[in-house]
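Before a colleague's protein record goes any further, I have to sign it off. I want your independent view on whether this chain really folds as the tokens say. The record follows directly below this note.
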Amino acid sequence: MAYAEKRGKSWRVRYQLPNGKYDSESGFETKQDALDYGRAQETDVQRKVFINPSDGRKSFGSWVEDWAKVMDVGETSRQTYSSRLNAVILPKWKDTPIGDITSMGYKAWQAQLKGQFKKNYVDAIEGLMRMLLDDAVEERLIPSNPMPSGSKRRRGRHVAATTEDTYVWPTPRQAHAVADNARALRGFQWYVMILTAAYTGLRMGEVAGLRREHLQLLALEYGRSLRVQWQGQWLTEPAKHTVNKGESLESIAALRHADPARAADIADANGLAAGERLRAGRKLALGKGFTLIPPKYSSYRTLILPPFLGELLSELLAQEGGHEYLVFPSQRGKPLRVDDQFYGRFWHPIVEGQDAEPVRRGRKAQLALPAVQGVADMVPHGLRHGHKVWLDEQGHPRVAVEERMGHRLKGVEGTYSHTSPEMELGIAKGLQRAWEESLAEETGEVADWQGRRSS
């Protein structure tokens, strides 16, 4: 039961916590004020809504450390969260008691973010911050989330919602033009890579992680397929691997790193000797760097390929000097890394064009490339957006389109709608027509891929 004590010129109250121990609060002018406060806390304890005020004095940085230990997310999500925390959130809030984060303080920080970063990145930062504070509410560290709710009415100037779609995606003809620039800049593999991304809708990580054994190209016409089994990512924290029966360090390195020589990295990360026999079911930490991990949302899927793409991929795999495991390695024959160098030396030139430059000290000659009209500022993910638009324009069933994109429908439609082989075949035929029509636009003639016109 709460009781008050005289402490110098003020009063202190001691009140009972849910665990039976006592906490205290000082600085009350009168005994009655102290008792009122203590009794209110004990009432909250009885109603099971008590939040210990001392918990709110825990620093935000300490809360993030606790949160990270129990957060069960995939390797890429963990890496993304860590990057955003270290780059933006923790420099501002690390030493702030979590109970001292106020709505007004947050709004001032939000205004600074909007002045520094693009909207999508600010939205991502806010989403992570909201999740952290929501979880702090769940743990009863704070009574409520101080971040303003998007659905709440707020004072201030009205800001009209943006209704214009500004995302840049290509038509089939524009995608072909980008692929032509890629071939001129780096060769046949890069031409095929752009067309594969455009005509399958693969995410760039799935393109980088496409293994040669996941292409089925021996059948004719519409029997060729591509299996999405992995995505390739450069990780700053080791991923995990559960050992299967008969696996060795070398076979795991070949499977997950696309490089058997990295067996030494796995051995070092787990304190194992080279060639040590592995027990099935054991969990191993993999090496950092390029790693094949499950596709986003575990969106494993098999895609029927339009004939033209199947033939291009067959021709690519038949070439000498390719990577032993990966379909689309980097220019140096290593796993593909979509980073600043990829954008600066490859992507921007094939989309926005470049002027010819002679050989200069420390730099190779630069080939002139024409800009592809209508797709300025398009990012690689724009090819995936374009793929979805093409399928929608062709009127394919939504369930088949979403499944091809690696998404799952929710609700009744997701439960009772199913993709039939005829739907998948219809998509492949529609994509073949789109390809042929893009050639017709280029040549001004009725295109026919190697004399065959698919209906």
Strands lie at 3-7, 10-16, 22-28, 215-216, 225-228, 231-235, 240-242, 283-285, 289-293, 301-304.
